[in-house]
Amino acid sequence: MTDRGRPPHPSGGTGTEAGLALVRTLLLGTAAGALALASSGALAPAQAQSRGPAIGTGLEAPRLQAGKEMLVTADELQYDYQNDRVSAVGHVQIYNDGSVLEADRVTYDRRANKMYGEGNVRLKSKSGDVVYAERLELTQDFKEGFVQSLRLEGADRTHFAAASADRREGDVTVLRSGVYTACEPCKEDPKKPVAWQVKAARIIHKEGERMVYYENATVEMFGLPIAWFPYFSHPDPTVKRKSGFLMPELSQSTKFGFSAGIPYYWALAPDYDVTLTPTITTEQGLLMQAEWRQRLINGAYTIRAAGIHQEDLSVFVRSDGSTTPGYREDRGMIESHGEFWLNDRWRWGWDAAMLSDKTFLQDYDLDKHTVFSFGQKEIRSQVFITGLGDRSFFDARSVYYMGLSEYDIQKQLPITHPIIDYNYVFLPPVWGGEAGFNVNVASMSRTQADLDGINGSDCSALSTDVSRNNCVMRGAPGTYSRLSADMYWKKRLIEPTTGQVVTPFLMVRGDAGWRDAPTYDYSTEFVSSDNQMVSRGMAAAGLEYRWPFIAVQSWGTQTLEPIAQVIVRPNESQIGKLPNEDAQSLVFDDTNLFEINKYSGYDRVEGGGRVNAGLQYTAQLNGAGTVNALFGQSYHLFGLNSFAQADMANTGLDSGLDTTRSDYVARLTYQPDSVYTLSSHYRFAETDFEVRRFELQGGAKYERLNLAALYGRYAPQPLLGYTDWREAVVGSTGLKISSNWSVSAAVRYDLINEKIDTTNFGIKYLDDCFGLSVNYVTDYTESGNAENVHKVLFKIDLRTLGEGGFSTNVGSLTP
């Protein structure tokens, strides 16, 4: 086995596990100390010794160096002139360059050119690594040696043990009946089995090859053997990156059966590498994967590809005879991700992907390996450049969307070319207040209109029922480009005597747009088809007023704060002459009650005179937390009410803002302490106080237990395509059973249809050397599938050896 480690780097990368180098160091270093003892007595100048570079761990053994002194202490020195031997006996300690060698007895045999260390041999390096042995033997030229009852403790918390170890041919160290683990023994019961260990008949370290080999190896977990390998290997600690096989990847699915992949990592150069993963599936044949990684001076990029020639297409046929996107012989994908820094403020990069079909990633459990988010419903291929200044921000990107849902129509998804955002805040302040400007440039195109039915109508491309009365347009066909720029100023003034807060503000904005609309499309029902430049302007002046009243009682502090905001501006112009692509997600609630422009994007701008008013209450209870409440309403004063003027998506209609007096919005939150939180958000009908929108969210964070729940109920919005009530509850929890074990669970329940549509359950074990997690996921709404998807994800991580996983996907289709 090997480990490809972190992404490659021009300077070489990162290290791997330490350990066997200490055995060689013990043999060499102890001999050096003994020679110094024999030649110089208890304290003498050290003479230089020549040997190869130390391996990996940073352990510098007690060895003779020019200009260094070595201190040797012992109860006594014994000279055997007849046999030409010298021995240090009793509590022998040899100090050199921060390292310490200890033994009961150290003997140097000049005739045999051998050194012997006996009894409680212990070597501690200045880096903290410790080697224990009962007996050692080494030749004078250091090329051959023997250690009995070896035990090694690395500073990186790795452990080797062996009945014996010997050194051959100058660069080969062999541990017999060896054991390796990266787990610490239990302090209360050292005999208790560790989480994992590898036992081998022989562990061989070949210094010249910089490799460690295991023969007849058994992997044990908690004392139980789980795997046997006649042979495996990994690089020694001096190797930053090493070609070789990685941990196997196992998976199971109703679509491809059982699969087994063995990745091969190929370290081509210090700055780039490739990983090849042939995966055999029992039902679909050979799946090939390849990944190229390269790190440059100012960034890095990856390229990944996968492909298969499927042998059994029947698993992609549903019970009703229809087929899924996977019903094709040849399937595959290629993707790439890159990011580079131009300097400390500017970076650019890309995300790119091409797929043979919408469900290839999910069908072969490849979505968890991509640069895109696991479970994502779409893929965004983009090129971007971003800059961040002290008072400015710039972002430009061009994006191509690919839908991963079977129900997505690719021609209806936009291509943006590009979207540019620039923000700047002036310094020093202007007229004593904050001033700045924003610029947005958007250009996009799509081939086919994206339509949704309202009132239960069919608005597909072939329908004859397409009209403003039956449909809304989510995306306009053709090419649409727009430039928007605005400047703002605001200043916060506090009256020192009464505490009244007055914030005057100004805003001026201009937009210019152009659309090239297809002449054959019915989009003229929703947006103007005139292929001409359209411009509009907006200016606003306003004042926000707050007067907090504070009352202090023995039980806490109360603050009652009336808030009023007056905005004067002309009507919104050119409504319907430009598409609304980015301002459709309008939700009127307490969070945007006092926003000057409540639209979510640039394609719409709020016009007409308006007053926003509310009352906020805050209570800080001594020892009992904080209560916050807000109740408010918005009033249209004069001119056109923008929210009552329909655009192609009917944005604003059924929003609660489309009448002269808006719906009421409210918020109530309570946080008794750092453990519990409870918040609720409301929208009440202005006429009869019916609850149109309600969200209740609560959470608790204990030392070992986390709880969270969200309940939502939303009224129909028939003019937006939502004809029924929507109501659901989502709950999640996480419990830390012990210092190592934890469980988690989540569920989403559709109260209208009375069914669970998503569940997730997981259990995890994690300690200093070992990680294990199992997750069970059920998704009743996964894209591209008609029936429930059940997934089991298994992952294991052995510190210093690598990680592997197993996933199973069952029940997604019924042939």
TrEMBL record:
Entry keyword set: Cell outer membrane, Membrane, Signal
Gene Ontology terms: biological process: Gram-negative-bacterium-type cell outer membrane assembly; lipopolysaccharide transport
Subcellular location per the Swiss-Prot or TrEMBL entry: Cell outer membrane
TM region positions: none
Domain of life: Bacteria
Gene Ontology cellular component terms for the protein in this record: cell outer membrane; transporter complex
Family annotation (InterPro entries): LipoPS_assembly_LptD (IPR020889), LptD (IPR050218), LptD_C (IPR007543), TAT_signal (IPR006311)
UniProt domain LptD C-terminal: residue ranges: 330-717
Pfam family, one: LptD
Record family assignment: Belongs to the LptD family.
Assembly: Component of the lipopolysaccharide transport and assembly complex.
Primary role: Involved in the assembly of lipopolysaccharide (LPS) at the surface of the outer membrane.
Official protein name in the record: LPS-assembly protein LptD
